[in-house]
Structures are given as C-alpha cells and as structure tokens.
C-alpha cells in the first residue's frame, strides 16, 4: 500500500452536510475565521499530523506551520500529534 493511499481525501474529512446546512454556519464569519476553523478542524481530523493536514488543505507544510504559529501566538489551542516531540 502506498503512502498516498493512506492520506484521506478532503471529501473523506468533511462531514456529510448539505450546502444549505453549511452556508448558515459561515454567515457572519470573516474569511480569516473560516480559514482558521478549517485548519484547526483538519488538524484535529488528521490527529495533529501537519503533513497530512497540509496535503488535505492544499497547503505547503511551511504555510501550515506559519498559520499554526500565528494561531498559537493568539492563544488558540492547536491540535498536536501524539507523536510530536515534547
């Protein structure tokens, strides 16, 4: 089995909500807030694995790391991998 086949597709990570259920959740939120929530939820669903989350989000690992650093500086709790160095 190749590594690529173990990475979940973005569709596999999304809850099965219809568009008319998702849009009301987004109304009133800024693009930054929506992006932050998407990043945090994707990290959580990838068990804190930054490489997998970056791949699912279509970001480089460096970009994801910079976003995580920004969120942490703002006092936001970011999901961490259980295998991350302490």
The ordered string of helix (H) and strand (E) elements is HHHHH
**Quick one: biggest sheet?**
none
- What average pLDDT do the residues reach? 82
CATH topology of the domain at 28-72: Arc Repressor Mutant, subunit A
Estimated structural class: mainly alpha
Q: Which segments are poorly predicted (pLDDT under 50) over 5 or more consecutive residues?
A: 1-5
The number of distinct helices, counting runs of at least 4 residues, comes to: 5
**C-alpha termini separation:** 30 Å
Number of DSSP strand runs: 0
Q: Strand fraction band?
A: under 5%
Shape: globular
Q: What oligomeric state is this?
A: single chain
Query: Roughly how much helix do the residues carry, as a percent range?
Result: 55-70%
Radius of gyration in whole Å, from Cα?
A: 14 Å
CATH architecture of the domain at 28-72: Orthogonal Bundle
Corresponding CATH superfamily of the domain at 28-72: Homeodomain-like
CATH class of the domain at 28-72: Mainly Alpha
InterPro entries: Homeodomain-like_sf, HTH_Fis
Protein name: Fis family transcriptional regulator
GO molecular function: sequence-specific DNA binding
Pfam family, one: HTH_8
């Amino acid at each position: 089995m190749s590594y690529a086949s173990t990475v979940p597709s973005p569709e596999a990570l999304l809850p099965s909500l219809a568009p008319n259920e998702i849009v009301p959740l987004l109304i009133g939120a800024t693009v930054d807030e929506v992006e932050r929530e998407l990043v945090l939820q994707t990290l959580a669903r990838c068990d804190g694995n930054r490489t997998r989350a970056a791949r699912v989000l279509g970001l480089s690992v460096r970009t994801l790391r910079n976003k995580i650093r920004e969120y942490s500086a703002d006092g936001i709790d970011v999901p961490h991998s259980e295998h991350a160095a302490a």
